Amino acid sequence: MNRYTPEEPIAAIATALVPSAIGIVRASGKNCIELACGIFSRKEKLLHAPGNTLVHGWIENPRLDSGCKKIDEVVIGVYKAPKSFTGEDMIEIFCHGGVNVVTSVFSLLLENGFRKAERGEFTFRAYINGKLDLTRAEAVKEIIDSRTNISRTHAAERLSGNLLEQIDSIKKMILDTIGNIEVEIEYPEDEENISGSFDSSLLEAARKKLSDLEASWKAEKLYQDGAKIVLCGKTNAGKSSLFNSLLKEERSIVSSIEGTTRDWIECWSDFAGIPVRLFDTAGLRKTDDAIEERGVELAKNLSGDSDIILYLVDSSSGISEDDMEFMKSQSVPVLLVLNKSDVCDFNLNGTEKVWNDSVKISARHSSGIEELVLKVKDILLNGEVSSREQCGLGSARQKKSVQEALERIEHALEISRNSSYGLDAVVQDLEDSLESLGEVAGEVTPDDVLENIFSRFCVGK
Question: What does the mean pLDDT of the chain come to?
Answer without folding.
Answer: 86
